[in-house]
Amino acid sequence: MQVSQNILRKRYADSVHNQQRIDMEHGSRNRYLPIYADESYLHQDTFVKSEFLQKIENLGDSIQGGFRDATSFITMANILQGENILNNQDVLAANYVAKVSDEISFDAFNKILKNESLSMEMRGLINQLVNKLYNINYIHTGLMMAS
Asked: Which of 22-26, 44-48, 49-53, 87-91 has the lowest mean pLDDT?
């Protein structure tokens, strides 16, 4: 039993320290020097925009005034679906909201969500739609609400 534990410890130590380079003068591993081609290597964080975010940013003026009325809202939802930002379920929720709501606004959407006679599935779809629209509106600094 002791022999197998020693073998496991050695394998673990070798795998943990396998990133060190070999000291050519002494023929042993130097456990304190990492293997890097450039000794002054420093990790750098980078931000890469997702494809989804890039699509949203490229919408431009096509979403301007999307909250003006029900017709412009449905037109905007169809544009967003064409760009693969909204899916079929989101468009279904958009059509429902456009029919039920007196006005097109986030406040009106939240009032619809508070309706207790609304099914849980439709409530989830509307909630998902509102979250997506809110994020798109945020990225475009309120362009949907502009006339």
From this structure: 22-26
Tell whether pTM > 0.90. Answer: no
User: Two tokens at 129?
Assistant: 């739609």
What is the DSSP code string of 96-147?
HHHHH-SS-SHHHHHHHHT-TTS-HHHHHHHHHHHHHHHHHHHHTTTGGG--
Q: Is the distance from CB of 130 to CB of 86 less than 8 angstroms?
A: no
Phi/psi for 34 (5° steps) reads -75, 160
DSSP-based three-state secondary structure for 30: strand
Q: Cα separation of 130 and 102, whole Å? A: 16
Half-sphere exposure of residue 100, counting CA atoms within 13 Å on the CB side? 17
Instruction: Categorize the per-residue pLDDT at 147 as very low, low, confident or very high, splitting at 50, 70 and 90.
Output: low
First-to-last C-alpha distance (Å) of the chain: 78
CB atoms within 10 A of CB 116: 5
Q: Is the pLDDT of residue 84 over 60?
A: yes
Q: CA 68, CA 57: separation in Å to the nearest integer?
A: 21
